[in-house]
Amino acid sequence: ETPVDETPKFDVVEHVYEGAKSAWAFGKGIIVFKPFMGVAEGAATKVLSITTGISTLEDADKQIKCTLAGVDKEFIDPAILKLWSALEPVIGKGDEVLKTVLGFVTTKVPLLKAKEEVVTETPSPAVEVSSCGVLS
Fold it and tell me: Given phi > 0 = left and psi -120 to 50 = alpha, else beta, which region is 114?
């Protein structure tokens, strides 16, 4: 058997790019924006054609996806994994850490102290109630 690569892939940059494309497609569906979006696409196609030789937005999309996959694989995914490995021991002890932090905050911030510590009770006058509900 061949070893299976178990390194998680997050594809953050690719997801952001796809989200931007979805927002663009949504904007094209709005009548007020439709003419402006068409002009912007035409201008983008012209600029891409002149500067890179890419003649269609579909070709540009393929190139962009390949580049973004490399960025995710080489930079973003390893950074997320390093961050996770640093935070995992703390998150694993999350309950203990949370209790410690909350205990510290409640002792240092007077408004967050327990009610019995902050409110001083004044004694209420004793009132006798007879068996028929009349005050005496």
Answer: beta
Q: What's the angle, vertex CA 36, arms to CA 45 and CA 26, rounded to 5?
A: 90
pLDDT tens for 74-116 read: 999 999 889 888 887 777 766 676 667 666 655 665 555 555 4
Cβ(34)–Cβ(28) below 8 Å: yes
Q: At what angle do helices 57-71 and 34-52 cross, to 10 degrees?
A: 70
Residue 84 CA, chain-centre distance (Å), reads 15
From residue 37, give the alpha-carbon distance in Å to each of 8, 10, 28, 69. Answer: 36, 30, 6, 26
Tokens matching residue 19: 């989200």
* pTM of the full structure: 0.61
Percent of all residues in the chain with a pLDDT value above 70, rounded to a whole number = 64
